[in-house]
Amino acid sequence: MRALHALLRVLRLRVLRRDRHPRPEPDASTDRPGLADLLEAARAPGTPDELAGEKEVVAAFVAHRRRAARAQRRTPARIRAALVPATTGLALLILTGTAVAARTGNLPQEAQQHAHRLFSALGVPAPRTGTPTPDITNLTWCEAWHGVPGRTLSQDDHRRLAAAAGPQGIDRYCVDLRRTASHKPSPANPATGSPRKPASPAGVPPRSLPPPPSSKLPLPGSKPSPPSSRPSPPSSAAPPHGQALPPPGSAGSPPAPGPAGHIGWSGTPSGAQGPPIDRPRVRPNAGSCTERHAQMLQTVTIELPLSRPENTDGHGKSTPEDRACARLLLSRVRGGHHFGPTNSSRRATASRRATDSVFGRAIFHAICSWSRDRAHNRMMSVDSLTKL
Amino acid sequence: MPDDELTPALHAAQNGDAAGFATLWRALHPAVLRYLRVVAGDHAEDAASETWLHVIRDLDRFHGDTTAFRGWLFRIARHRGLDEIRRQSRTRESPASIPSAAPDAASQAADHASTGWALAMIAALPPDQAEAVMLRTVIGLDVATTAQILGKKPGAVRIATMRGLRRLATNPQIRTRQGV
């Protein structure tokens, strides 16, 4: 076997040597008559015909070199090929993010207003004009705790309310919460820091809040309070919580019992008595406030400055719903809440309708605006609403 | 032109010097054209132009000495010549070649004394022998470079060259043209 490998190696080496040092081929140039002449003729120097295209070829060489020099100065094709899609993708991402932020109303206020002005037809909402009142939920629980009809307090809500109240107790907490909500300083008067109280008509001093009932709803698992301490359900003869407002000119007097005319949610006077007030007809509306507004308004039945003639139904009386709605609106005003642009956005329309329902269209349209925009874009300002 | 004289021209051409490239072209273009006359026949001029355009395009990426440059150049020339043959065979539109007038005796004698006659004799060989004779004997490439260009083994190149030369030597026209 070794001998065979050695033989193969020798043969391979011979082949390699023959390739490296080839034997001279049988060149017949010397011993073949005529062949040498033929080969010499084939090796002859170039004729002028063969060298006729020198200028064109050299010009092509120079032109190619110039193009190559220019191409080297430009951005390499690889970088350009990677840069263009990356830039396009980034721009697309930014545009998409901005569009989504504009559609969901998360742009900065100025930018959102501008986007809304340009693309409101595409559903871009107006900027949010404030933050919801954080105590509304707790106020809702407090109302349920105090037995307001239609409000129930679940066990979880009771637990949360107790946790929010802390050691001072739910009753005390609810009283403080109502008082705090009623006397928040207006941001329109930040220099003084004094709580902005709603204006009352001449001779009608602002009334204090009635003491909250000490009763509470029976909760599962909790000890119910005596039934005598529970608040009585609201009736037409006795409005709930004793918050009936005096008629104009009779400050402090309790409201007249019976089916007094009022502007309810529908804004339709019922049982008109007394001197009518010249005010425009309020839109009849079943949905003048949104459902969210209505739910929140039912929870707030604190007395509000509805004793002014323009805020009542012409008899100096208002329904609990009116007061509740006004209370909500005013609490929002005190919390620095604008009522949104009076344009086509859904949120603004709801706020406008709520304001319209409570304060009347005449007052609404008489409100000046902070905005320097066109009329249909005006916003109801804090100052304007707190002057009501 | 010897390789020692071509080396500076090659380097100059690679650096973008038009004069260096012109020197290269003047030294090598006749050989390229004659080789392509054997490979591509009447399409040798087009194939030679394509060859030099290819060289211009890729010259800055070439690395090697003059011998390697010769091999690279004739490899390109062979490929372009074969491409030209294929293209002309696909786009053959002329019905038939017009027969030229019968050459007179004077022009025929001049042709016999010219390079064209010698190339025609070589081109009459079988293609592998004709290419081997041209590259090995006329142009002067070594066996290894010729084998790389033709895609054959060195032994096959050697045999093809030997057979081609023998056939040329036994050609009666060549024997009678002794001393031209």
Question: How would you portray this structure in words?
Answer:
The complex is a heterodimer of chains A (about 400) and B (about 180). Chain A has about 400 residues and is mainly α. Chain A contains 13 helices and no strands. In chain A, about 45% of the residues lie in helices and about 0% in strands. Chain B is mainly α and about 180 residues long. Chain B has 2 domains: about 5-90, Rna Polymerase Sigma Factor, Chain: A (Orthogonal Bundle); about 110-175, Arc Repressor Mutant, subunit A, CATH 1.10.10.10. Helices cover about 75% and strands about 0% of the residues of chain B. Chain B is built from 10 helices and no strands. In chain B, helix 1 packs across helix 2, helix 7 (about 125-140) crosses helix 9 (about 155-170) and helix 8 crosses helix 9. The longest helix of chain B is centred in the middle third of the chain and has 25 residues, at about 65-90.
